[in-house]
Design goal:
The protein is of the alpha+beta class and 217 residues long. Helices cover 24% and strands 22% of the residues. It has a single domain, classed as Double-stranded beta-helix, CATH 3.60.130.30. It has helices at 67-91, 93-104, 199-205, 210-216, and strands spanning 8-9, 18-25, 59-60, 119-124, 140-145, 148-150, 153-155, 160-162, 170-172, 179-181, 184-186, 189-194. Helix 1 packs antiparallel against helix 2. It is globular, with a radius of gyration of 19 Å. The model has no long low-confidence stretch (mean pLDDT 89).
């Protein structure tokens, strides 16, 4: 991972950035509404269709399977997670409570190091095209780091451009606002804290499997 964090010009030919996801996801869940009676792990689709049993419930992103790397990232960013948590609870208590609901319903009493948010993304050499993160819930937090010039974060609908630097914390509804980065030069990375809006389906009725969960628990 350290070898990815190098000086970069985002306008150079062949530019690419790297991202690692350490999050609890609920998206692409296989819904249990209308499924026949039976234990969810014993039900399969007809005609030998593909079936990912893990996606019937919230699941960890693939990058979290590298436990040593994941634990190192959590240890490195713990102070930032606590800062964001305290600020969110003090200044946006309603959003804090809403975001925490999904985390309180994770399987096997699991949790997130950046509670009440569901996870974090580590971006290196990042400069994004205009996009919305439709899978995010309520808010995301962007925290840049490094020694760089440029790289401002722009919000299309509002017309604002934020010249974020190391140490800044920027919160906004990434699911509703189109955002992108200006080009940059230098050593640049970014930490993004977010939560999956599809967790609401799991909280509501376990993605349609609630009857089976109660019956076969």
């Amino acid at each position: 991972m350290p070898e990815e964090y190098v000086w970069c010009d985002s306008q150079a030919p062949g530019y690419q950035y790297t991202a690692w996801h350490f999050s609890w996801f609920a998206r692409y869940a296989e819904q249990g509404d209308g499924a026949p009676d039976g234990h969810p792990y014993e039900l399969r689709k007809d005609h030998n269709g593909r079936c990912n049993l893990e996606q019937r419930q919230p699941h960890r992103s693939k990058d979290m399977n590298n436990v040593e790397q994941y634990n190192a990232m959590v240890e490195a960013f713990t102070d930032i997670f606590e800062l964001v948590r305290d600020a969110l609870k003090e200044y946006l208590p309603d959003e804090y409570d809403q975001l925490s609901i999904y985390m309180e319903h994770l399987p096997l009493d699991a949790s997130s190091p950046c509670y009440p948010l569901g996870g974090f993304v580590l971006n290196v050499r990042v400069c994004t095209w205009a996009h919305q993160d439709g899978g995010d819930n309520l808010l995301c937090f962007v925290i840049p780091f490094g020694n760089f010039t440029g790289g401002g974060l722009c919000h299309y609908e509002t017309g604002f451009c934020f010249g974020l630097k190391q140490g800044d914390v920027h919160a906004f509804p990434s699911c509703d606002i189109t955002h992108f980065n200006l080009h940059f030069k230098g050593l640049r990375g970014g930490l993004v804290l977010h939560s999956d809006r599809h967790g609401e389906s799991w909280v509501r009725d376990c993605n349609g499997w609630s009857a089976s969960v109660v019956r076969y628990s």
